[in-house]
Amino acid sequence: MGGGTVLGMTRIDKNPEGGSAAVSVRGLVKHYGETKALDGVDLDVREGTVMGVLGPNGAGKTTLVRILSTLLAPDAGHATVAGYDAVRQPRQLRRVIGLTGQYASVDEKLPGWENLYMIGRLLDLPRKEARTRADELLERFSLTDAAKRPASTYSGGMRRRLDLAASMIGRPAVLFLDEPTTGLDPRTRNEVWDEVKRMVGEGVTVLLTTQYMEEAEQLASELTVVDRGQVIAGGAIEELKAKVGGRALRIRPADPLRLRPLADALDELGITGLATTTVDTDRGDVLVPILSDEQLTAVVGAVTARGITLSSITTELPSLDEVFLSLTGHRASAPQDAVPTDDRQEVAV
Amino acid sequence: MSTATATTAPALAADARIPLRGHLRHTGALIRRNLLWIRQDPESMFDALLMPIVFTLLFVYVFGGSIGQALGGGQDAYVQYVIPGMLAMMSMTMSQGVGTGFSQDFNSGVMDRFRSLPIGRGSVLFAKITVELGRMLFATTVLMIVSVLVGFEITNWPGLFATVGLSALFASSIMWVFLTLGVILKNAQSVQAMGFLVLFPLQFGSSIFAPTDSMPGWLQHFTDYNPLSTLADAARGLMVGGPVAHDLWVTIGWSVAITAVMAPVAIHKFRTKN
Asked: Which residues pair with A315 in a beta bridge?
């Protein structure tokens, strides 16, 4: 597969529209002593699109967002947001961005409404407008009932929704979401995704960092994969998925006792996917990474030949780990909570 | 390349300067936030309420008799002596609050939200100082009520207001020091520990609690220019009579000098904090 043709599409130098990049990053470097948080990052986000920045903990995602939101000065390179230079025009830049992250949060001691009103005033809205905007956004993010309660009493999902509402007060042109769903349960995560999709529908340009391929696929149209401060791949999400060959089969035998024979059968088949086949004894199923439809057919054939009855077979997106393995040849540095590995035995195929 | 993109920036936000009214509006919004904290958590006012009461009773009734004798009177003489000292001490201890509060803001992440908003860096600092000065004023009022109850006589009422003004001036200068600590130290506990380390020698190596005549010579030199001593002595002069000029000027000098050095440092550290 010719990497250049697949990955070359986001270069601004060749961008036919010219200057329509809402975020443009060139050669960005930030070192902390020996640690290279960012080591020459190039990135472009076109207006009105959602760029996912995918990478494990410590890849430099948060450092990138902090530089783009003027909280941190880069050591080298430059970055512009909506045409404003992050170092030389921080005040103008701050006026056109919204920020929600693990760190930039609301004031826990203040009620939800007061948080939004305060930010409205800090963004120079007249009193009356700040009040209406706070009401509006609480309503929109389904927080009206909790308006008067301190944010510290909110559930995880409510907190994130308040964070999102806070970042929307100034009607930003560019929104930075730094791991918006890390630490949320799946249902709450879906809730936050729905909100983000609505915001995107209103034409906001979004740069989103995440550790989850699934999240990137849900929200982003383009993806930049980072590792150890460097961009290791980038492009439209469909293209990346094609490059990764991204699929894994989750196969569950009807009889849990047949789990081991099933794994053995797959073992004998010798399919070499992106990662290793794993047996999940907790869930009672086997996860087989595959690269092609032929392999899918072969798996089904092997299972049938052994006479193992299946209760389900589903296709999943590759995990961050698998994406990394296929793009870089090594595993992601240390995604602590990206892939649950407990109680899971690895079976080399 | 960046110059090319910079020129496409919308005219709307082209002027980066924040007008004075903007600064006032931002500071106002942040003061409101700090006041809401107090409403949400009234216990945070306990120190301002209880410290003046406890310290006054403690010093007047525990040490009052014996130190009063040395002053050539009794407990009453000590009341006249120690209350202005208390006022000076409180301006110092209350100013610590800005540092710990600030440190908490940084750790909770709300400070990053502020710093990503188009507001002047000073607004966040000024709001904190204003609210803490308000708390100090409250504590001073409590102190004055308690001190009148234990027999303190103010012979010069305008002097009381001058004293409060002087304390506020000095306290605000010290607050810049604590704001700086709040920005550079990792957590509120470190700020408190560091504050204690600074405050303790200043408080006891001073004329706040007892006259300095019996102290060794080297310590007297220290106390003579210790701003807490001069503030306490100025307060005595202003409220109950006596020489004022030297202490007044030394205190004002310290306040101006500390502010001139520490305010830019605090703002700079705040601006460049990662």
From this structure: A249
